[in-house]
Design brief:
- Chain A: This is Aspartyl/glutamyl-tRNA(Asn/Gln) amidotransferase subunit B.
- Chain A: It holds the Pfam family GatB_N.
- The complex is a heterodimer of chains A (499) and B (100).
- Chain A is α+β, with helices and mostly antiparallel strands and 499 residues long.
- In chain A, strand 9 (144-146) and strand 10 form a beta hairpin.
- Helices cover 39% and strands 18% of the residues of chain A.
- The longest helix of chain A is centred in the last third of the chain and has 23 residues, at 359-381.
- Chain A contains 15 helices and 17 strands.
- The two termini of chain B are 37 Å apart.
- Chain B is α+β, with helices and mostly antiparallel strands and 100 residues long.
- Chain B is built from 3 helices and 3 strands.
- Chains A and B meet through strand 3, helix 1, strand 10 and strand 17 of A and helix 1, strand 1, helix 3 and strand 3 of B.
- Strand 3 (61-62) of chain A pairs parallel with strand 1 of chain B.
Amino acid sequence: MSNYRIQGATGDWEVVIGLEVHAQVTSKSKLFSSASTEFGAEPNAQVSLIDAAMPGMLPVLNAECVRQAVRTGMAIEAQINTYSRFDRKNYFYADLPQGYQISQLYHPIVGEGKLLIARDEKAGIPEDKYIGIERIHIEQDAGKLMHDQHPTMSYVDLNRCGVALMEIVSKPDMTSPAEAGAYVRKLRSILRYVGSCDGNMEEGSMRADVNVSVRKVGAAELGTRTETKNVNSVRFVMAVIEQEARRQVDLIEEGGTVVQETRLYDPDKNETRSMRSKEDAHDYRYFPDPDLLPLRLEDAFLVECRASLPELPDAKRLRYTGELGMTEYNAAQLTAEVETFARFETLLAETARQAGKTEAEVATQVANWTLSVAPGVIKSLGDEARLEHNTAAANAAILQMVSANTVSGGQAKEIYEIVLKTGRDPAEIAETEGLKQQSDTGAIEAEIDKVLAANPDKVAEYRGGKDKLFGFFVGQTMKAMQGKANPGVVNELLKAKLG
Amino acid sequence: MSVDKQTVAKIASLARIQMGDAELERMVPELNNILNWVEQLGEVDCSGVEPMTAVIPNTLRLRDDVVNADPLTGGDRRDDILANAPAREHGFFGVPKVIE
């Protein structure tokens, strides 16, 4: 249970949150027509006669959209319904030529499942928590309207009309903005692992309807909820919950009642406002679509769907902390995004191969490099970094020189910079540019002897018990070696000589 | 089951059909006749019979995910699509402003 509370004049309130996430299914063509789904086309270039609802056209279901919805359901450990059906949701709007949206009200393709949000004490999530998922159904998206292009007209682009969406409906299990934010991030991560949705919130591939109600702490009854539509970022989802919970508490405490209604979020003003006032707005008169027979899923199809699932975020995180012995922080960072773990795993395999070690032995080194060193160098170079030179082979070669003590951490960064700018070979750079650390004990010993001879008083003080002076000798030796001495070797030799 | 004038007016409004008072009056008995006629089906005992969704024993046919597989059901036909538009504006349908 989260301890998120809204302080009211009459006491503390808690918030109850449910989310309906609309995720655009990754497919080349639309749910019921073969028009393209590609983003950014000329207006109305990707509209078929089916999408435009010409008389006599019949919908034919896209097998890939079914497959992606089923795989998504499996990834959230949900019940897969081998019998599902399509229904018409009737309403009139300029973005919907059919006059109805084909959806699945009565028999959705995916039933109950769950999703784990990880403990995050800083964010106010004291322990791991499962959020229930009620259902996933597939449905058509509507077209896009633009109201600001002409003084008296709205413009309609039907390219998005008929594109497949999964509507992923959570249970009202979330009790703070942080939990809702973690839920959306985790869901996005799973969708991207599975490859069923690109999760691009800027392009509208994922958007959430946020259901919020409030009640006095400990009350058994749920309050009346409002639904804020089409919220398109994690940050806005969290802001909507904060604003809406506050508004409802204030309203109730002033003697008003919350009306069950649809609201809109205005990010500029950071407030929600009522969207539809018509009392019959929700009278959708659903009925089974007579154009579409029931969808039945065969065993062989389900087996293929399951076999095609990749290792999922939770399993991957456990493997990273277990088998690879990584810290929880590193594991969480590396597994959040598909691109990050893909880069990490490629580099891990290559580093282990070059070093002739197991992946577990090099995992921590590769993790630190992937998460902090490499991004830091790339960022500092800005446009000078040519990412085509950022190969796993080059990165692994640098890491190999570091673990062999041939180069220091600082030298590794310098070599990496040159690699990114020029694509030259790391070993060659280390050699040519003098970016190698001196591990030759003879040369280091000679410098140490000089340092000790030049500072007899300090040597005496050290031997007299002033341990802190050790750092001084290290510093002097490194300076004499122009910073290229292997610090481990310097330490060892100094300890021996100072006795 | 039967409908009254108010219900018919609501259904008409949801379907965006404008109806005058006289039309509504005429429509109420017409719709009720249809409803009564269909309601006769309720007299048949169909306990133990699975609901039928189609008259032919068949399941849904799926298609492969291929863009513009068939010219009749594919995109790339903007001129055809916009041929019926009330106004054609830079490739968009132009409709009366639908925002309050």
